[in-house]
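Lab notebook: predicted structure, single chain.

Context: the supervisor wants predicted structures on file for every construct in the current expression panel, including those that have not yet been purified. This is the next one on the list. No modifications to the sequence; it matches the entry in the shared construct table.
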Amino acid sequence: MTWPEHHSESERLAAAAEAASRGSDPQQAESLYRQAAEAEAQALNDLDRTKTRTLGVTAVSLVALWYKARDLALAERSAHLWLSTPDLPRFAADQLQWLLQTIWNDRVRGESPVRFTGDEVTVSVKGGEIVTGGAPLDLIMRRVETVQALFYRTAELLVGAAHRKRGTPSDDIRDVCRPWLFQTVPGSYQFVVAIEEPRQRDLFETKRPQAREIAQTFVAILKAAVEAPEEILPSIVPDVEYRKTFLSLARSLAPTGPRFTELEIRSVDPRNRPISLSGNARSHMGEVLKRYKPAPHDTVDQLQLVGVLRALHLDEDWLEILTPAPNPIRVFGAGDTVDDVIGPMVNKRVIVDAAVNRRGRHVLRDIQLAE
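Prediction complete. Output recorded below exactly as produced.
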């Protein structure tokens, strides 16, 4: 057989493994991933080494398949072997180094009595004030809390729960979706988020999303929110209220100023391109959010306020911004803002886009942190 034949067979087996994984048959999935890795290894043996890009893609695929087959020792040996190959292109070396990080992290977690899915995500914060292995605590904590909120919202979406505006996730959601935070090898500033498998099964298990499904859907939602919020996100998140919340939370991950320049989220599957959140992505998501809340028909002016969010009463539909003006500015129309989005903004500098009506009342169109 030739490289194309072995590679096509590997892709077929990997697709069958993914189907088995979605069907909650992990043993069958691991067996199929192992067969896919063996076919990919044969493809590499038959490959013309002058085709360096194909070599890199296939080597990364091989290591990822051994990892998914849960043979961490063979995945690690294969990664080291191909990293030592002189003809390996730079993109493949980067991906293999990241896979090695994932393998090492997974081995540590494997020694724990807590079970995790294999669908962790690595979050990297880059540029600005970020140094290798270090970052301002407040900046990182806000991103950690936002990632956690996104995971909980994903679980609620998958179980068909009503959109939650107030309060915290239910105990049932926390049971099915327990994000854990892990340190990783420094490179800019990075952390890993993994989802714990539920410790107890119940009679209604088939109606609950699997932790792996939550992790994979989280990545799909975030990717669509950043790259195609109007084209693809509605097909993944049909409910408009959920969609606005996901967009607002995704935007909260992106940089607003010079403190950092990019946040990158990478899934364990190297076939998925990293999701990059930049200032441009933040601006684009903000414009989409404003289209969900157009200015009222009696608007006579639109303005942007920058100040500290000092008070809010969502049940009474208002918030107050402390600006250089003598008195706080009360902005109405805040009642549909969800706790996950506005809670972290209290007593922080924010940017408020508001419409002003004929009576001089400020009406909220958008609010975001000003870091």
